[in-house]
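OP here, attaching both records as promised.
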Amino acid sequence: MYKTFRKIDKPFVSAYRNFVKEILNKFIMNNTVFITGASSGLGKATARLFQQNGWNVIAAMRSPENEN
């Protein structure tokens, strides 16, 4: 049903991490974020990044019991 995507290149992940950090630094108006698709992949990485930077994270996922 769902396609498996290839692993993301490290330079892309690094650029994405820097992009999110820039957003965190520029828009610190409210430190709560709602992230969908947080059980794996980019959603999970984003949720962790926000959490590590002191944000309150509300993480939504389709099947929390299958969270990896």
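Record two, same layout:
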Amino acid sequence: MGVEGHMSGGIIFHPSMLKVAIMPDSPSLTIFEDWMTLRRTVREVFHANGSISIPSIAGKYTLRNGILKSGN
């Protein structure tokens, strides 16, 4: 961690795209709808961190400094 308090590490040659489909009855749907509405209203990009857990393959993924690019 640097003196400014930011952790650096890894090599990313290009951004990775991730497409997520959220079911209409998902409790997280309103979070993404509100995020997109705010983004469009204030015309700013909001970065977010998150995690994805896929129990069927015992996979866990950590997302850092991502953005919401599009929404319906």
